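The records we work with from here on pair a chain with its fold. These numbers are not coordinates but entries in a learned vocabulary of local backbone shapes. To see the layout at work, look at the sequence and tokens printed below.
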Amino acid sequence: MTAPSQNAADLGPIDVWLFDLDNTLYPTTSGIFAQVDALIVGYVMRLLDLELEVARALKKRYVVEHGSTLRALMDRHGVEPIEFMAEVHRVDLTAVNPSPALGAALEALPGRKLVFTNASSDHAERVLARLGVAGHFEDIFDIVAADFVPKPRPAAYDALVARHDIDPRRTVFLEDMARNLVPAAALGMTTVWVAHDGEWGRAGAEDGDIHHVAEDLVTWLQWAGNGHAACR
């Protein structure tokens, strides 16, 4: 892993800034993803009539084996994805506060900005609205747009690139789950791990596919935006 260099121009010419949503555009301390996780475990418990700890362990295994719990439930149990997403995204977003600093940092980035998420566009829109940054993003490429193929499956990245006519070599991808950066790096994207100490976030962080580490998203974006502004 490498920290940002002293010169943001080292990022090269960038046309697209690609952002994961949950635990990337807002901090993990908000507890939003913990709410989603609990709702998913509850769904698995009811669907399969399992005890809590068994459902938690199964959810963890499904994410590792299938990329997401939803994909596993679709493949193995015939779950209707729209119903599932409506259930597990019933979260309280009051802990996500407006972030004028994030909005200003996004504004300073030249080029297109997109959200790339395994969640639904409805959930993403609610989060972006709470942050006050929805107007900075051209589009949301959600799990529905990916035909329910989740990150880190390469097909999801290929679909995104085709849908939005992206040149991966001129794209920066920011993501809190290190393993989701692996396919992006393989395509030629510049990868940025929005670091945290959670088990899911760190998995794959030592695989050599991380070009930059952002300990704080806004600070890193300010560094990147200032460097590119100086080169315009």
About this structure: The first strand starts at residue 16 and ends at 19. The CA atoms of residues 146 and 156 lie 5 Å apart. The chain has two domains: 8-28+98-231, 32-88.
